[in-house]
């Protein structure tokens, strides 16, 4: 008989859905719990942001289902993903639903958990290091700093009705704004923030493929953001950090300072 290495040792007729955060990219930033669940899972449903090296940690022979290949036109609709998770769990299978970063930060984990609960399927949520934390650490940009920021906001830059969303006061003195999915809409974002009274020269950092081998950290002012995105051909996934902390660990500033003392 096959042993069930999943925590809880469920053997009942209904499987459990594990909503698991895969972290920001670097496989070393996976939690031990995520790694253990992957090793035990017979079915892994993953999205497009998960590094192949993490997928390779699943046990040999596990069924691997990709539901949202990045930049693919064959992305499964959210309702279909929910239905897949519920169907598999009701058939008795434990399912690891692996998501980039943390499942509850812009990961639609809430919707999947609701769908499972509504169908009577047990759910466990395993946190992952969100790309916001991963990017900040890798770029050495502290999201809070006693001298610069004591409030951090996470916003989605690409969502229904961006222009109608009230971002007033989210950025500015003493605050850090982290924008997910904001590359394609960077011009609108800049316009929106400047219209809200944010200074055009507030520091901005764009962190592309954070924690991955080909990570880039690019800097500009708010006014220069969309030019930077265009001229550097910034690719998804990338985060935009806006606020005084975005100037921390900036080599261009350091180089200018060094030049000034020479
Ligand atoms: N649940 C994820 C976010 C999913 S939304 C998390 O907690 O990180 C997808 C967005 O996350 C991307 O558009 C990008 O803005 C950001 N993102 C994810 N991985 C990233 C990475 N390695 N580097 C920079 N941004 C990343």
Q: From the alpha-carbon coordinates, what is the Rg to the nearest angstrom?
A: 20 Å
**Full CATH superfamily name of the largest domain:** Tetrapyrrole methylase, N-terminal domain
CATH fold label of the largest domain: Cobalt-precorrin-4 Transmethylase, domain 1
CATH class of the largest domain, named Alpha Beta
Main sheet strand line-up: 3-2-4-1-5
End-to-end distance: 73 Å
How are the SSEs ordered, and which strands pair?
Layout: E1 17-21, H1 32-40, E2 43-47, H2 52-55, E3 63-68, H3 78-90, E4 95-99, H4 109-118, E5 123-126, H5 131-139, E6 149-156, E7 174-180, H6 186-195, E8 203-208, E9 216-221, H7 225-231, E10 238-242, H8 251-261
Parallel strand pairs: 1-4, 1-5, 2-3, 2-4, 6-7
Antiparallel strand pairs: 7-10, 8-9, 8-10
Helix pairs in contact: 3-4
Bound molecules: S-adenosyl-L-homocysteine.
Outline the structure in words.
With 262 residues, this protein is an alpha/beta fold. It has two domains: 2-129, Tetrapyrrole methylase, N-terminal domain (Cobalt-precorrin-4 Transmethylase, domain 1), CATH 3.40.1010; 132-247, Tetrapyrrole methylase, C-terminal domain (Methyltransferase, Cobalt-precorrin-4 Transmethylase, Domain 2, 2-Layer Sandwich), CATH 3.30.950.10. It has eight helices and ten strands. A five-stranded parallel beta sheet has the order 3-2-4-1-5, with helices on both faces. Strand 2, helix 2 and strand 3 form a beta-alpha-beta unit. The longest helix has 13 residues, at 78-90. The protein is elongated. It starts with 16 loop residues before the first strand and ends with a helix. The model is unreliable at 1-10 (pLDDT under 50). S-adenosyl-L-homocysteine binds next to helix 5 and strand 10.
